[in-house]
Amino acid sequence: MSASILRTAAASAALMVLACAIAPVAPAMAAGKSRAAAAKTAKDSAPMFSSQRQTEHRGEHDDLLTAGLGLDGLRAMVPPAFADAAHPTPVELRRRALWANWRGIADLAPGGGYGELYGSTAAVPGREYSAFATVPGANQPHRVLVQVPDGFDTNKRCVVVSASSGSRGIYGSIAVAGAWGLPKGCAVAYTDKGAGTDYFDLDADQGVRADGTVGPASEGGLAFTPKASQREGGKGIAFKHAHSQDNPEADWGRHVHQAAQFALVSLNQAFPEQAPFTDANTRVIAVGISNGGGAVLRAAELNDTPWLDAVVAGEPNIYVAGARPLYDYTTEAALLMPCALLHKPLAAAPVTPITSDSAESFCSYVAGLGLLGDAAKQASTEVRAQAAYERMHASGWSDDALRAGALSVNFDLWRAVAATYASAYARYAPAGQVRTKDPDQPWVRYAYAAATPASASAPAAERAASESERAAWWSDASGIPPGAGVQLFGPSGGERLAPLAALRELWSGEILGGEAAYPEYGAALKRAHERVRAGIEQTRAAAPRKDLPIVVVHGLDDGLIPPAFSSAPYVAMARKAGAQVRYWEVRNVQHFDAFLGLPAMGARYLPLLPYVYAALDRVEAHLHQGTPLPADAVVVNSPRAGKGLTAENLAVPK
User: In whole angstroms, what is the distance from residue 168 CA to residue 106 CA?
Assistant: First the structure.
């Protein structure tokens, strides 16, 4: 990294609560739970809920699962419109959020099999209960929401609890948990696990209310409100995952637990004549994918109260001792993967991973940093690409993961994820502020804002968001910019790739390129490095409860969260501790079902969701009928090669 970039980085771096107690415990009915409920810890005994709401969702144009859109409406290429773009109603925002989250998770394209071969978008009438929940000690709340279908089986008493994938909003697991649980007569509880789409506009001093509409900080009751000292003179956009200063990932398991507790509160309200609904008399199954999969596995380790009956985790982002955490392999991929994908044996990638000219610039840059060895500094792009490939292969990346990782390169996910998590782990405040000498800023300053379009003569530039843009963030955003009109802007000046190296330096603690002649920069990096590493350690998973049935499902082609870094070491750790974990490794499955609508992706890869639903079916049968848990499996299936998906393609374990 050049001295000018180090100087730029160093100059920038010098970022009504209501307690609701759960009802008394009734005699246990759920297999696997202790007959006598264990005493709750002080941290979990009084979950904190505020801004509680109840809404009805029935009739021809509304329901719990698709807001009345049905499969055809979800497939529409444009989102449901707002009558007034600057002032959408809560009903309009909810419908659009459901449309966006379905399309962000499931393959809904014709021929993909959704709603026909697997899954459901059938109308499910019922009620929603929502609130803000607060983990003791947190600065900001997380959202919880419970869907109670009119067909809820009061004799079966089942709750499916889930956490949003990625950093999505409260409906971010609708296609995972809602689509499976609601048609079965179960209540479904969700948490955004302290992330979500409750963006805060620092220019306008406005954030998101409980109903999704936008309001000023002065009125209070917002889902995310940065501290007054951070808002004063602030500019740009702050979002909860990066800027809450809570490191929410450290509490993902407790977020899931609070969502389950809110489900019991909601069921007591919905069916007072059947109350109390308690941990002991209500069956709870946790399910999630990606970050949501990691969250439900973290919930599985909360042994102080036997509240959970089973867990299904798909492609989980989970970190255990001795394995590589997300931040490590993400920052490695951000620098090396564009170059490694030029290695000729990987030319069969399903999508072109950025133009060759741009990829060559990555090769040149990382070679100059010395990351590819001394010989590569003066070598050809072909030699550099092979060196980048060999380095990633040696650190655990499979060829299949590298090929699928081209998607994350194309969509700028490595930079977006690394910047977000660096801020979250170090508990940094928003960086887009007028003040330049704030000591609580990260080693590398990333700011978030609406943007003017880039042109041939000028790059995109930060600007204030419009009223209509701000109004749509809650429904349209995925939780991590770029997206929904919000961009992330790196430090100005110097090499355009230097910020990626700075993000990697936060992991390694060493200045890349060997420029250690500036001791003040080294001291600043050391402080930031220690903060990030401490935050990562707070996310390390522990072993689950020994008697808790768990099924982990992971695609072997996952290029965002490779199973070698996540599921495989987690399963090994859990089994060593005596847990009953089953593991399905699924061939020809990558991380993003939603991209299977692209012809090249759909021809090569299969969806993950059918296997997650099947695992839920097997777990349910185990709990209700006592059938054995499924055996471990390496699922050998066959891509559909452009044809309609069939059961034979999937080869779901029987």
Answer: 14
Please count the residues of the chain: 654
The partner residues of 191 in beta bridges, in order of sequence, read: 144, 163
Q: Are 3 and 516 in contact (CB under 8 A)?
A: no
Q: What is the pLDDT of residues 301-323, one digit of tens each?
A: 997 668 999 999 999 999 999 99
d(CA 144, CA 366): 43
The first and second tokens of residue 233, run together, are 């003179």
Confidence of residue 442 (pLDDT cuts 50, 70, 90): low
Residue 540 CA to residue 44 CA, distance in Å, equals: 20
DSSP 568-598: HHHHHHHHHTT--EEEEEETT--S-GGGGGS
Catalytic-labelled residue, pool 167, 290, 423, 566: 290
188, 181 in Cβ contact below 8 A? yes
Looking at per-residue confidence, does 75 or 436 come out higher?
75
Kindly state the helix (H) or strand (E) to which residue 524 belongs, with its residue range.
helix 519-537
Q: Name which of 152, 201, 317, 322 is nearest 248 in CA terms.
A: 317
Cβ-based neighbour number of residue 460 at 10 Å: 15
| Three-class DSSP labels, 475-516 | HHCCCCCCECCEEEECCCCCCCCHHHHHHHHHHHCCCCCCCC
pLDDT tens profile 16-43: 222 333 333 333 344 455 433 444 443 4
Q: Indicate the burial class of 646 (C-beta count within 10 angstroms; 0-12, 13-18, 19 or more).
A: exposed
Q: CA of 589: how far to CAs of 552, 563, 566, 634, in Å? A: 14, 11, 16, 12
With a CB cutoff of 8 Å and minimum separation 6, the contacts of 259 are 133, 144, 145, 146, 161, 162, 163, 189, 190, 191
DSSP-assigned letter for residue 276: P
> Cα–Cα distances in Å, from 351 out to 93, 375, 407, 578, 642?
33, 30, 7, 42, 15
Q: Alpha-carbon distance 265 to 635, whole Å? A: 40
| Spatial CB neighbours of 198, under 8 Å, sequence gap ≥ 6 | 143, 169, 192, 207, 208, 222, 223, 224, 239, 240, 474
Ramachandran angles phi, psi of 369, nearest 5°: -75, -10
Mean pLDDT of 74-83: 97
* pLDDT digits 0-9 by tens, 354-393: 676 688 999 999 999 999 999 999 999 999 999 999 999 9
- Complete DSSP assignment for 451-474: EEPP-SSS--EEEPPPHHHHHHHH
User: Rounded to whole angstroms, how far apart are CA atoms 235 and 229?
Assistant: 12
Residue that the structure tokens 């936060």 belong to: 506
- Read off the pTM: 0.92
Whether 290 is catalytic: yes
Which tens digits make up the pLDDT trace of 118-165? 999 999 999 999 999 999 999 999 999 999 999 999 999 999 999 999
- The DSSP call for residue 564 is G
| 142-149: strand order across its sheet | 18-19, 48-57, 126-134, 142-149, 187-191, 158-163, 283-289, 310-314, 550-555, 581-586, 633-635
Residue type, 100: A
pLDDT at 241: 97
Task: Please give the DSSP secondary-structure letter assigned to residue 565.
Answer: G
**Residues contacting residue 428 through CB under 8 Å, at least 6 positions apart:** 15, 242, 243, 245, 422, 440, 441, 442
- Burial per residue of 583-619, b for 16 or more beta-carbon CB atoms within 10 angstroms, e otherwise: bbbbbbbbbbbbbbbbeebbebbbbbbbbbbbbbebb
Q: How many whole angstroms separate alpha carbon 102 and alpha carbon 106? A: 6
